[in-house]
Structure formats: structure tokens, C-alpha cells
Specification:
Blueprint: H1 4-9, H2 11-19, H3 27-64, H4 69-101, E1 121-126, H5 139-144, E2 148-149, H6 150-156, E3 163-164, H7 166-185, E4 190-191, E5 197-199, H8 200-206, E6 217-219, E7 225-227, H9 231-237, E8 243-245, E9 251-260, E10 279-289, H10 294-312, E11 316-320, E12 332-340, E13 345-354, H11 358-363, E14 366-368, E15 375-377, E16 379-387, H12 388-398, E17 406-407, H13 413-416, E18 420-421
Parallel strand pairs: 4-9, 8-14
Antiparallel strand pairs: 1-11, 2-3, 5-7, 6-7, 9-10, 10-16, 11-12, 12-13, 13-16, 14-15, 17-18
Helix pairs in contact: 3-4, 7-12, 8-9
Length: 423
């Protein structure tokens, strides 16, 4: 959530920055609401002050043995006025909060301004796409012979679910274990296990609610709950309403979980194969850091995700998302895109974002400054390290041979105890 003080003090500037994201604020309405809030607050404070004065006068009258009936009557009328002002203040504040809750984060000054993903900027590339001496197959044609079962996914659930048999199930498990081992032993992350169902407060805290509700799977329960779209939701919410000491920062977590997304806005994209399923595995990286170090941490987090691709020998590129392509909570995002031979292009495999204090304000996650003793908001960062299903797809396509078999990347061979997957 944006700082309400920015709306009060710098509304026009905030409005211009959000325009670069395609968001047009009704500044007149916001300014009017803020003026109402200020007026009612001053009125309420004056009434409360008057109540204190009259209460004191009643006490003094009683002490002197004087009749205080008139004072009691006037205090009762004053309390009615205070109650009315409190209701007016709550109503205006609620409307302001609802508007703030639907405003996305302000883009960082370093990212490209754009109107669509076409305006994203390539930062760097790694590796050289393999040149095949045969026409490479896509992961669906390769996978069906190795145990990629979409028919059972449809039978059990619906379209965009998959069952993995045999060595493909083992390959997925090997990828998860490799990623967790790398991030915990070399990158300094603490592994964490979390619930796969989150309540509405949790999803509000990380920014999925209220705006992104259509992309969630709701669970029938006695409270409003959803299947998590990413373990970021659960992990970050372990720190909701918490006060950390400065020397506890940074906190670095890695979490494997299934993720569930309705893909409501995909409109028929990537309906073939495992690129965009309703359920998929992901190893998530999260950092909770001091505000002054969050952009250094952002670069580090992206590099940690890149290391996975490098160890697997998968060509990729790093993209800085433009203003129009940012996620709701993000101030800056790097997408990692892996090379897929069958599509002759790069496809997203990781998204690494700095949300600055946007999530922390919603979550009320703070730290105590060691010098001043004041409570300040932390900065939170998240990134895929990596999306497991898409990594599996990339391995199948990049390591295939002419027979449809798959050479296992060297780094995974100890996990699989195989160096080749036969079709």
C-alpha cells in the first residue's frame, strides 16, 4: 500500500507516476475525500477536547458540592455529537483506505517507461542457444513418450493440469532438490515450509486482494480462504504484525510449494503443454531487508535465480519490465527468460521483484532502527528460483536428441542417478 502521506502531500506527482503504469487516478475525488477527512478529524479533536474540559468541570462541581445536572446534560449531548463525528470520520477513512488498497506500487525511477511488454528492456543474456541438426520437438511431443500425461490431468481435474509418471516425476523432484540445496548451501537462504491455503488478510498483505481475486482459487471454508498463487504469500505473512530488531536483517527464505492460479487473464494463451498450468511447482526466494539495502538485495536475488539456469546450462536473458508490465506490488522487476528451441524464443521462467515498503505497510512489518529506536517499515523482495515446471520444459527441449531422448544436465545426474532419459 502506498504511504497515505504521499497522497496528502504529493497527490499530483503520485498521479503522474501511476499514469506510466496505465492507472488514472481521480485526483479531484481523492483531494475532496482528503479534505473531508481533515475537516472531520479537526472537528472530532475539538469535540474530544471539549469533552475533557466538561468532564473536568463536572468533577470540580462535585468536589464543591455544586449541582452538576446541567453539565451532565450538556456532556450527554456532546457525546452524541462525538459519536456522529466518529462515524463520519470512519466512513471517510474507509473510503480512502479502499481506494489506497487498489492503487499499485509506484515504479522505481530506473525502470523503462512503456505501454506494453514490447517496451521491456533487455539487460543481459547468458549462453548461446543450441543449433540443432534436426528439427527440435516441443516439450509436449517429447514428454508424452516420457510420462507427461495431460489426459489424466483432465480426467482428475480439468484442462491445464498434468500428471507426471516415472522419470519425469523424478526429474521434477530432482530439480526441486537441486534448487533448494543450491540456495541453502551457497546463497544463504533458510528453508521454510508453509501452508498452501491462505486467508484473506494474508492475501491482502502481499497485494493479491482485492484487485487480483479473479486469479485465485477460493476454498469453501468457514472463513474466506484461497489456495496460494505463490509461497511468497505464506512466507511473508509469517512476519505480519511483527517488529524485528535491526540486527535481524536481512532475513532470507527459500520455499518450495505447489502454486495455484486460475489464469483468468490469459485468454487462451499457452493452452498446450506445461507453460501455463493451473497447478505448478515453484521454488521461491524471499528477502526482508533494510530499506537502504533493498536494491543491492534485488540484484543479488536475481543473480541467485540466474545461477540455477547457469548450473543447468540453459541459455537465458534478463529483462527489466517497463512501467506498464509491472506486477501490482512491484516497484521494479527483472524477468528471467529461458530459451525454448521449439518456439525459437525466450520465455519467462522467473520474476524477481522489489516491492520496497509496499507490502510491509499492508502487513505492518517493521524493524527498530538501532540508532534512533524508531519503528520503520522493512523492504520485501521475492523471486522465483525457479519455476520448476518451466525449468523441466526447458531441459526437455534444450537437451533432446534426434531420437527424442533427453540427456540429463551434469548437475542433476547425482540426483537422478541417470544421465539419459529414454523415450
Amino acid at each position: 500500500m502506498l504511504d497515505p502521506k504521499l497522497i496528502r502531500l504529493d497527490l499530483n506527482n503520485i498521479s503522474e507516476k501511476l499514469k506510466t503504469r496505465g492507472i488514472v487516478l481521480d485526483t479531484s475525488h481523492l483531494a475532496s475525500l482528503e479534505e473531508q477527512r481533515k475537516t472531520v478529524q479537526i472537528q472530532l479533536q475539538n469535540l474530544q477536547s471539549e469533552r475533557n474540559t466538561r468532564s473536568k468541570a463536572i468533577g470540580q462541581a462535585k468536589a464543591k458540592g455544586e449541582n452538576s445536572d446541567d453539565l451532565f446534560h450538556s456532556l450527554k449531548e456532546l457525546n452524541e455529537s462525538i459519536k456522529l463525528s466518529e462515524e463520519q470520520f470512519s466512513h471517510v477513512q474507509l473510503e480512502l483506505n479502499n481506494l489506497l488498497a487498489r492503487m499499485p506500487n509506484i515504479p522505481h525511477k530506473s525502470i523503462p517507461i512503456g505501454k506494453s511488454e514490447a517496451d521491456n528492456k533487455i539487460i543481459r543474456t547468458w549462453g548461446v542457444p543450441r543449433k540443432f541438426d534436426f528439427t527440435p520437438k516441443d516439450h509436449v511431443d517429447l514428454g508424452e513418450k516420457l510420462g507427461m500425461d495431460f489426459a489424466s490431468g483432465v480426467k482428475i481435474a480439468s484442462a491445464r493440469f498434468v500428471v507426471l509418471h516415472g522419470m519425469l516425476a523424478k526429474l521434477q523432484r530432482a530439480l526441486i532438490q537441486f534448487m533448494l540445496d543450491l540456495h541453502t548451501t551457497e546463497h544463504g537462504y533458510q528453508e521454510i515450509y508453509v501452508p498452501y491455503i491462505a486467508n484473506a488478510d494474508s492475501l491482502f498483505g502481499t497485494g493479491q486482494l482485492p484487485n487480483l481475486k479473479e486469479d485465485l482459487f477460493e476454498v469453501k471454508h468457514n472463513t474466506e480462504c484461497y489456495l496460494i498463487p505463490t509461497s511468497e504469500v505464506s512466507v511473508i505473512n509469517t512476519l505480519r504484525d511483527e517488529i524485528l530488531e535491526s540486527d535481524q536483517l536481512p532475513l532470507k527464505y527459500v520455499c518450495h510449494s505447489p502454486c495455484f492460479r486460475s489464469e483468468a487473464g490469459s485468454y487462451g494463451k499457452d493452452t498446450r503443454g506445461m507453460i501455463r498450468n493451473h497447478q505448478f511447482e515453484k521454488v521461491e526466494l524471499l528477502q526482508i531487508v533494510h530499506p537502504e539495502k533493498s536494491y543491492q538485495a534485488h540484484e543479488e536475488l536475481a543473480q541467485h535465480a540466474e545461477t540455477v539456469l547457469q548450473r543447468l546450462g540453459l541459455p537465458y536473458r534478463v529483462i527489466s519490465l517497463c512501467t506498464a508490465d509491472l506486477g501490482f506490488a512491484a516497484a521494479k522487476t527483472y524477468d528471467l527468460e529461458v530459451w525454448l528451441p521449439s518456439q525459437n524464443t525466450y520465455r519467462e521462467i522467473s520474476s524477481c521483484s522489489n516491492t520496497e515498503d509496499f507490502q510491509a505497510r499492508r502487513l505492518k512489518t517493521r524493524y527498530r532502527d538501532a540508532k534512533t529506536g524508531h519503528l520503520e517499515l522493512v523492504h520485501t523482495l521475492n523471486g522465483s528460483g525457479l519455476a520448476v515446471g518451466r525449468t523441466l520444459v526447458a531441459i526437455l527441449e534444450n537437451y533432446q536428441d534426434e531420437t527424442g531422448g533427453i540427456r540429463v544436465p551434469d548437475i542433476l545426474q547425482p540426483y537422478l542417478r541417470e544421465n539419459y532419459l529414454h523415450c
